[in-house]
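Q: How would the C-alpha cells look for this protein?
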Amino acid sequence: MTTEPAELYCFNHPSASTMLRCKRCNEPICVKCAIKTPTGYQCPQCVKKHQKAFDTAEPIDFVTGFVTAAILSALASLLVGIVGSFGFFAWFAILAGAPTAGAMMAESCRAVTRRHRSAALFRIIAIGAVIGALPFALLNFGAILYLIAYLVLAVPTLYTRLSGIQLFR
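A: Here is the predicted structure in C-alpha cell form.
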C-alpha cells in the first residue's frame, strides 16, 4: 500500500510546488529560493543567518580601521610623491611598491581591528586608504599619475588581503 506524498509548497512562494527542503530548517523551498551550498540546498533565511555569524566587527573597528588606513595611505602617497621625482624609474618603484604598501596596510588594519571581519569594514578601510591619499594628490598635482597608479595597485591589494578573496586556488 503506497501513499502519494503530500504536495509541498515553497515557504516564500506559496503558489510554487516543490520537492526540495532546506537542509537546516527543513522548510520546503522552490528552485528560485534554493541556494546551493557545499553540503546541500538552503533557504535564503538560513544562509543569511549563517553569514551573519562571520560578521564580527564592532563599531570601534570601523573607526580605527578607517583612521589607520587613511594615515598609512597618506604616508605612502607622500613617498609616492617623493619617488615620482626620480623620473622614468619611479614607475618601476611604484609598480613594485604599491602592492607591497597595500599588503602592509591590510596587515596593520587587521591588527588594529583585532582581526574582526565584516564586508562593510573592509569597504570602509579601502575608502580610508583612498581618502588618505587625496590631500597629497591635490597638493602635488604634478605627481597625480603616480598617485593614481599607487591607488589602482594598493587599494585592491588591501581589500583582497582583508576580505580573503582568493583569485587562484
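The CA atoms of residues 74 and 124 lie 16 Å apart.

The chain has five helices and six strands.

Upvote if useful.
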